[in-house]
Amino acid sequence: MGIIHQTKQGTGLRAVSLNGRLAKRAVLFAACWVATWPLFGGVVINEIHYHPTSEDVREEFVELHNTGDEAVNLERWSLRRGVRFDFPKAIVPAHGYLVIAADADVFAARHPGVQPVVGGWNGVLSNRGETVRLEDAAGKTIDSVSYADEGEWAIRQQGLPHYKHQGWDWLAEHDGGGKSLELVNPTLSNKHGQNWAASTVGAGTPGAANSVLNADAAPMILEVRHSPIVPRSTSRVQITARLIDEQKAGLTAELFYRPDSAEAFQSAPLLDDGAHGDGLAGDGLFGLSIPAYPDGTVVEFYVRARDEQNNSRSYPAVSVPDDEPRANLLYQVDDSAADDSLPFYRIIMTRAERDYFLNMVRNPTGRFSDVRMNATFVSRMSGRQEIRYLVDIRNRGNGSRWKSPNNYRVDFPSDTPWHGVEKINLNAQYPYIQLLGSALCQQAGLLVSRSRLVRVRLNGVDTAVAGYP
């Protein structure tokens, strides 16, 4: 199916509108953070109140926590990236806190008695997520956190009905829900959303220990991947996951997986013994290979980890309201030959969600619904494949919603953008007109979404029909 992919950034030929932020955010300064930690007693970004319920940006604040045994002088230090603030002579007490407020007077009225506080920064914290960076007097990065309101920083919940249909939304109470974003364990890396949670008290706990503080939390489950990205029916599939916990001993991981036609999940242990595609024994990377499946099979999977104290976590996180793993990771077996003549996009859904989605868009009422389904997105461009799990897909358009093939909107989790963008529109109707219009506007120097021609498959199927425009 030839489709126009319109973009607001980049170049090129269904039509895809792209917008969002740069993707390379999460670990840009990890090495510097590790190197400088001992020099400054372990000053970390510990709490972020980025989206007050009131929508008054003057109520925003960032809290620093000194995990060390000596006070740290922050004179001439600064906050950069999300907001800009140059510290006066400010001391973070040993094992204490310092609050940087967007507006010190508004903060004092909202949180009377909290000290020490400095404030008056330039800029506004994004409600979608961005990077907050702490630099010392020499401009070296001491800590950097790239927070988000989706992906690892949120959980999936069943959305409200829209035109009598329901799908998935992201739930993050720290995103305008009256809570702040708090670090769970300051002795572990604060680069990962699984080490953060919404405060259990309204507006957070500035100047005090976090309400979610836990020195013995469940293991973090990171870097979950399957390989190869598009397996063949002759290929076993390797699943890997990295676990991070306060203690390395006693960690266990279990893989749950099922072909889309099965009702029950099978389970098998992921191992860190150096013999299961997991790197070196004891390096924290766990692995297992699972059997090959027939061509076209969609496989659904998730990982559960546990420590010696029986603290457990699942990835993806269980969904609301039933606390069950309902929106999981997916891949599809495909024996067809790769075609690199055009960029190739795969949208992979469970059979149940795909059928629900297709029936919805063919329904006179349902076609107007914007509810979103869970999917995996695989792109192949110039021979290079990339994958994004846990994307949202919905129907889009106005008068063209009832036409086949449908137009789609793909939303990437805000913590894992794709090529620097968080959203793309896949427009299947009259792609040649959209492509030509975009090119002419660009030639005229007008602001316009850039477009590219791509192929799209929904669960391996080209949904185009003969004679489509």
UniProtKB/TrEMBL annotation:
Protein name as annotated: LTD domain-containing protein
InterPro entries, sorted: Lamin_tail_dom (IPR001322), Lamin_tail_dom_sf (IPR036415)
Membrane-spanning segments: none
Species for this entry: marine metagenome
Ranges for domain LTD: 36-149
